Amino acid sequence: MQPYLKNKKIVLGITGCIAAYKAAELVRLLKKEGAEVHVIMTASAKEFITPLTLQTLSNNPVHDRLFNQHLDVKIDHIHLARWADAFLIAPATANIIAKLAHGLADDLLSTTCLATTAPICIAPAMNQAMWSNAITQKNIATLQQQGMNIFTPDEGEQACGEIGIGRLLAPQDILRLLHSVFVPKLFENQRILITAGPTIEPIDPTRYLSNYSSGKMGYALAEAAVNCGATVTLITGPTSLSVPLGLANYIKVDSADAMYKAVMEHIEEQQILISTAAVSDYRIRETAPQKIKKSSETMSLQLVLNPDILASVSARKLCPFIVGFAAETERLYERAQEKLEDKSLDLLVANQVGPDKGFQSDHNSVTVFTRGGDPISLENQSKVQLAYELLKIIHQVK
Question: What's the gap between Cα 130 and its chain centre?
């Protein structure tokens, strides 16, 4: 669930492109998020997908003609232009991009876009050569200068068989980018470093020590922070998650030592450190160069302490505001307060772990501890929603 799309009024413009079929899924996802959707189709778009499909999914009539005497007088280009909280054109062909760049208004979609004051988001889709054409790129630059949001197309195999940049983004990615339009820019011009996921400590070439962290909370925070206007560096242990959109830096590491070194390398000039990573406390003293063979009923491993990233950053005053996370199985309040004080953190987010709590789950409930303030409880909700709630608290406390 993307919290800032609920009850938003979205005009979805669909133009003539094979990727128009993806618009059906996009409408479905928007409705699922609680948005109200009106669809405008160009004549060419109707060659690829029928208005009935979009009408059924949106629960609203589809608009496809500038002059339509059979529609309510209120449902015209001016009404739609004023009604919308945002315009989204997906897929956007090179033709509609050129029209908007030069202020042409010769059909319902281009006319309504010219009449609106709502944010306009463009999700291009076209052949890779058309996308890279200097005229298209000049038009894209013009739209960006006018304040329109360009959702840069994906790279890969296209319907024509060619490979390159020009594929329409996946509907879920378009949804995430549209959501960012409505997010308050609480951290604009600020740099945030986030650590996420587990770390792994090798035993031999085939085995390692690790933990149950999925990285979901850290990745949700990274994406939310980008949407809040921050320049985000994400340092992550091994996960199966997709890379959040819009990151300034995405750094993959394996071990606790590698994460420590990456943090120290990138902590300079950061305003906020948010350490969600479940960093291994210990590592194997000596990693075996070959696979250890089974030779007895028991096996002993000698462990040594890993560097403490949070404590090191705090002790050396390398970052103005430091946020830690603590996963506890018992005495949560007591141990969270201890960690807050012992590591001189500005804020600590603590949660109980166990069945369906914390690790691996898409939802969580947490308690936020600050210096001198009362604990703040955030009840069970999706980690995406939770990320925004935590960032609001960080903004208030900071």
Answer: 28
Full pLDDT tens readout for the chain, 398 residues: 678 999 999 999 999 999 999 999 999 999 999 999 999 999 999 999 999 999 999 999 999 888 665 555 455 678 899 999 999 999 999 999 999 999 999 999 999 999 999 999 999 999 999 999 999 999 999 999 999 999 999 999 888 888 999 999 999 999 999 999 999 999 999 999 999 999 999 999 999 999 999 999 999 999 999 999 999 999 999 999 999 989 999 999 999 999 999 999 999 999 999 999 999 999 999 999 999 998 888 989 999 999 999 999 999 999 999 999 998 989 999 999 999 999 999 999 999 886 655 577 889 999 999 998 899 999 999 999 999 999 999 999 98
Among the listed residues 17, 113, 121, 160, the single catalytic one is 160
- Which CATH class name applies to 191-281+301-397? alpha beta
> pTM higher than 0.70, yes or no?
yes
* CATH of range 3-182; options 2.40.128.30, 3.40.50.1950, 3.30.830.10, 3.30.420.10: 3.40.50.1950
* 160 is a catalytic site residue: yes
Beta strands in the chain (DSSP E): 9-14, 36-41, 86-92, 120-124, 149-150, 154-157, 163-167, 191-196, 201-204, 207-209, 231-236, 249-252, 272-275, 282-284, 303-305, 321-328, 347-352, 363-370, 376-382
Torsion on CA atoms 68, 149, 390, 265, rounded to nearest 10: 160
